[in-house]
Amino acid sequence: MSERVGYARCSLDKQDLTAQREILLGLDVPEERIYLDHGLTGTNRDRPGLAQALAAVRAGDTLVVPKLDRLARSVPDARDIGDSLTARGVKLSLGGTLYDPADPMGKMFFNILATFAEFEVDLLRMRTREGMAVARAKGKLKGKQPKLTARQQTHLVQQHRSGEHTIADLAELFSVSRATVYRVLERQQNAPAPSTSGGQ
């Protein structure tokens, strides 16, 4: 008997997967057959929830995802996962639309979606680089500045948590050494939590 297995993902810890879960439930995926990755980017293929979902499907089953970019954020990864599922006799449903690799139009649509998913990541990286270039230029006009301002350090930590950038990427984006990136992340990790105690 064929079954439906669902998969959902979000890149940031502060994001909520409720909406994606509701979409999967609305597509007749049982609650216990939904696998999730929270705070992991789609450019990272090594995701525990994805691995569990791919391991759970069998020939004749359908893997259901709300959108293709939840499954993969690069064209090679999307194609590889799609081809692997097809070879195993597993169907792929993108928001309720079945992907049919034997249909030329369906295959073209799949490739277009994968291209847009990858484009969004590349665009985000480009905007980050441009923003940092502007910030560096302003810093030079104001005279000698610390390696990273408090705001830049906060931005660096946020970019690291998003999972979209490696340590090397962050060092290049912020024009600092890798050692500086590690120091900023270490200071953030060791920073005392804000006090929540109040007067009685």
Automatic annotation (TrEMBL):
InterPro entries: Homeodomain-like_sf, Recombinase_CS, Resolv_N, Resolvase-like_N_sf, Resolvase_HTH_dom, SSR_resolvase. The keyword DNA-binding applies. GO terms for biological process: DNA integration. Keywords: DNA integration, DNA recombination, DNA-binding. Pfam families: HTH_7, Resolvase. It comes from the Bacteria. Belongs to the site-specific recombinase resolvase family. This is Recombinase family protein. It comes from Actinacidiphila oryziradicis. The lineage of its organism: Bacteria, Bacillati, Actinomycetota, Actinomycetes, Kitasatosporales.
